[in-house]
Hints:
271 residues, alpha+beta, Deoxyribonuclease I, Chain A, six-stranded mixed beta sheet, Endo/exonu/phosph_ase_sf, metal-binding, double-stranded DNA 3'-5' DNA exonuclease activity, Endo/exonuclease/phosphatase
Amino acid sequence: MKRIEISTVNVNGLRAAAKKDPGFVGWLAGTDADVVCVQESRALAEQLPGAVLAPEGWYVQLCPAAVKGRAGVAVYSRREPDAVRVGFGVSEFADSGRYVEVDLGSVTVASLYLPSGEVGTPRQEEKERFMEAFLPYLVETSAEVRARGRELVVCGDWNIAHNEADLKNWRGNRKNSGFLPEERAWLGRVLEQAGLVDVVRGLYPDQVGPYSWWSYRGRAFDNDAGWRIDYQMATAGLARGAVSARVERAAEHGLRWSDHAPVTVRYEWEG
């Protein structure tokens, strides 16, 4: 029986998250996860303290964006990866700090930070270009992984709420980036064409949420007026082995070290 526990979290800036108490460093020291996928690190290696860049017991793959202070992804793993690949073969996004994948035994784990977008702006156009380029890569990679008898899980901030159950105020967001009909349809194609499974939704098909992001504005966190945009999308063999999933929501607003919360899944499967 194989076992792996994977967490994914948008840290909203590694430097800021590390300075908070409790913060990312304390959370990392206390987690039971074997792999942690990080998004929106917004930092170069030389800007990070040792407790973040080289924490004891972890191998760290830090992939910053070429533009300082933007995006950035990382993977923390307790075992050294067999291979590391940055980007997905499209030149526009090669150094954008939005995708990295690592091979860990029979599982490929990826950290994704999909652009957030804003309707009617170049940011939304960038998001649409990314989506158009990324889907074929997912389809091809998923097929290749499965053909080799391996598994794939793409973790991260997908910046799209797929269904009405995935955000509190869905009626008021139907014309906003993150819940546009075409974005939701695209996410459906990811699942169908790439043969991936939304693991948390698979475990909790009838639950509203669980949300993983809450705006810092107003009382969104206190009222649990959030969005579920942080996913673990896995090939079917791995998804069937998901035995538990949880959103590690802070006990209160003052204990938050990001506007997102870690989404953690434990997998057990034959292989």
